Amino acid sequence: MTAKEIRQAFLSFFESKQHHVVPSAPIVVKNDPTLMFTNAGMNQFKDLFLGEAAVKYSRVADTQRCLRVSGKHNDLEEVGIDTYHHTMFEMLGNWSFGDYFKKEAIAWSWELLTEVYKIPKEKLYVTYFEGDEKEGLEKDQEAYDLWKQYVDESHILPGNKKDNFWEMGDTGPCGPCSEIHVDCRTDEEKALVDGASLVNADHPQVIEIWNNVFMQFNRLKDGSLQSLPAKHVDTGMGFERLVRVLQDKTSNYDTDVFQPLIQFISDKAGIKYGADEKTDIAMRVMADHIRAISFVIADGQLPSNNKAGYVIRRILRRAVRYAYTFLNFKEPFLNQLVPLLADQFKGVFDELISQQDFVQKVVLEEEVSFLRTLSTGIQRFEKYQAANHVVEGAFAFELSDTFGFPIDLTELMAREKGWSVDLLGYEQALKKQKDDSRAATAIDTGDWIVVNAEDQSEFVGYDDLEIETEILKYRKVKAKGKEQYQIVLRQTPFYAESGGQVGDTGRLEDHSRQFWVDITDTKKENGLTVHFTDILPDNLEGKFWAVVDEDKRILTEDNHSATHLLHAALKQVLGKHVNQKGSLVNADYLRFDFSHFAKVTDEELAQIEVIVNQKIRQNIKLKEQRNVPYQDAIESGVTALFGEKYGDFVRVITFDDHFSKELCGGTHVKATGQIGSFKIVSESAVAAGVRRIEAITADKAEQFFLDQRRELGHLKALLNGSKDLSASVQALLDENAKLKKEIEKSTLERVNNLKHEIVHHVRGINGINLIAKHIDLQSAEAVKNLAFSLKDMIDNLFLIFTTEIDGKPGITVMLSDHLVKKGLNASNIVRELGKEIQGGGGGQPFYATAGGKNPAGLKAVLEKAENFIPHH
């Protein structure tokens, strides 16, 4: 079976078991503060396990793009080295939300593996949770008894808490799990060692392919477990491992998932795959990493220097380093893999093929930038002086952190020089950075404390800015030493930060309206609207008034609706290739990032502004459609954003059916006239192929125009009320240029006169011609010209000038080439003399200058001049 057939067989099998097949969520996580990337198939269903969202389908199946390169699940350094670790991988999963449980999950997993995929039963081993005395958990007898119906008891193995009790994190849903392992060794190897002894022992050919998790408990902050109100099934099967087993390969990289990429790299490098372990690892790293890089960019996360962007930049640079060091790719190459990958996932994850050009351009730009950095790092290493032939750990870490050098590359370059690397020092520096980073981002989150019976929280803020409500639950959070509270309301008018729009602020008033707490922010966490406060109300029971800051909300809506008009105008002026790549919308301004490969010209910006302002003046009424079936919305020509997770039903925001029609959960003006006016204040580059426009609307735009008018009035007054400002300014510039020329001519004459005058003041000391003089010239360039003129006229010249230009003291030192060859250095001399004027400077061995703060020290400079002349 091909990889595509294997994937489809899984989805079709569970469809036949009444599972609803759902699309993969984006790999970049938007509304979960505990995660940057989707690292498990269950992430998109977290709110269902937590009981914080209604269950639409009680049975679900999917294939989910996952990424594990940071935090607890960090496999990055293993990737490419072994046969089965990956950065991006697909997780095939089937799920039950309060429907079936262990009996069906175990039966169906066995049926699929042995009857559909036809894996020989004797190759399979299964595990069950053996219990844990400390936790007060008994062995999972139910799972053991169920497996006995299908599997020989010698192939049913107990597993400890580490291997067979799955937890989402330090807190949250958890439960016992049952893994399925497959023994891919040869018959000869099996005869020597029993496969049961190699399960969960990191043997490269005895591997776990499927894990059935039985969600029964919720882990609380104090470590205790409470039973969940409903029991769930959460399974995950590693697609790449499954393909390897079914295609009878010893490595995931030998399957048709990776081989097309590897063979392409091999051909272009002119190096056969399988010829050498080092080059094989490099090819595997590249084939693996390009998958993670491409899908993360396609899902809207660009490489950058922080958070998720930094993680993806690290992965990209790791791939480039391997290509550079082991495959001799000195020019950008990684980007050439993107079209091949896009074609491979056509019909599975079409996000990539629809953005192929954009993704390839971003990867190319990153490669160009990093190869430049890598070259600088190599030059830095070449200049490094290793004490006792040992590269300091701190320097090795600097190469890694600043220039992207992996420690193995530093070791390789050190060995070529006969040096070693202080690995202990390197590890200490690395650990310190990780500890500092962890401490800076540590958040201590308490358990939810229920105030009223848990219902689903409902957002009503599209229609109301003030409502009567109740507190459902709250918890305490501590970050960076500051304590706050998070509150969940039964109904809330507060919009939670999402889709670029900031969260609402406002007040939570008690029913008497005499006392209140300020709501400082509103965010989403796994679909739940969470309100931030610095203190709690005295009495949490009873009714409250939730009141949104109306002024801030209205101004934010102005900017949000303006981004929709801007998006449509950009497509109209620049072309249909324009797609939103990020946005920020608050009460003060809007920021809009979009795909475009050239600077937007002033003429294009003016045209865009005109279109948006025309739409504002037309006062187009908002057409808002809620709960539209997703497919119907897409077929109607709506603009959907890459990297967003849309549900089965969506909200459509339209301003003129033929102009702007987008999927959006944000809040908007009732008619475009409310925006008032729109003004672009900047256009810039953000990353390869991504431009950014910042703009203002409403009262901020009005203030901008008033400020401009005031500035213009001031300018007119300065120009004596001139009616033609451009002509007046041009006349001033022309006059200024003319005066500059006259000053230059006058200065030149002054330099000429001084030159002939100074020649008569040369003092001969030990065969050296000394000039030490204060010069009255008001231009540093004139002083330099004078010094160079004298150098051409006088042999063995030792010249020191002092100056005072605009009240600032200066020193100039000029030496003849003959004196420089004798060991004198103008740069060293000027640095020493600079101390007299409380300053410093430098330059070249024959010419150097210094500036300072103390003009009174200039006299001492001239007095010390003679001290620098050798007396022999």
Automatic annotation (TrEMBL):
Spell out the Gene3D superfamilies in the cross-references. 2.40.30.130, 3.10.310.40, 3.30.54.20, Bira Bifunctional Protein, Domain 2, Threonyl-trna Synthetase, Chain A, domain 2
Q: How does the cofactor attach, per the note?
A: Binds 1 zinc ion per subunit.
Coiled-coil regions listed: 722-749
Keyword DNA damage belongs to the record: no
Its EC number is 6.1.1.7
- Positions bound to Zn(2+): H560, H564, C664, H668
Output the CDD domains linked to this UniProt entry. AlaRS_core (cd00673)
Needed cofactors:
Zn(2+)
Cellular location of this protein? Answer: Cytoplasm
Provide the reaction this enzyme catalyses: tRNA(Ala) + L-alanine + ATP = L-alanyl-tRNA(Ala) + AMP + diphosphate
Report keywords, A-Z: Aminoacyl-tRNA synthetase, ATP-binding, Coiled coil, Cytoplasm, Ligase, Metal-binding, Nucleotide-binding, Protein biosynthesis, RNA-binding, tRNA-binding, Zinc
Name any one Pfam family assigned in the record.
Answer: tRNA-synt_2c
Alanyl-transfer RNA synthetases family profile domain location: 1-707
Gene Ontology molecular-function annotations: alanine-tRNA ligase activity
Aminoacyl-tRNA synthetase recorded as keyword: yes
**Which InterPro entries does the record associate with it?**
aa-tRNA-synth_II/BPL/LPL, Ala-tRNA-lgiase_IIc, Ala-tRNA-ligase_IIc_anticod-bd, Ala-tRNA-synth_IIc_core, Ala-tRNA-synth_IIc_N, Ala-tRNA_ligase, Ala_tRNA_ligase_euk/bac, DHHA1_dom
What NCBIfam families does the record tag this protein with? alaS
HAMAP family linked: Ala_tRNA_synth_B
- Please give the family membership noted in the entry: Belongs to the class-II aminoacyl-tRNA synthetase family.
The record describes the protein's role as: Catalyzes the attachment of alanine to tRNA(Ala) in a two-step reaction: alanine is first activated by ATP to form Ala-AMP and then transferred to the acceptor end of tRNA(Ala). Also edits incorrectly charged Ser-tRNA(Ala) and Gly-tRNA(Ala) via its editing domain.
Entry note about domains: Consists of three domains; the N-terminal catalytic domain, the editing domain and the C-terminal C-Ala domain. The editing domain removes incorrectly charged amino acids, while the C-Ala domain, along with tRNA(Ala), serves as a bridge to cooperatively bring together the editing and aminoacylation centers thus stimulating deacylation of misacylated tRNAs.
The protein here is known as: Alanine--tRNA ligase
Q: Could you tell me which species this protein originates from?
A: Pedobacter vanadiisoli
Whichever gene encodes this chain, its name is: alaS
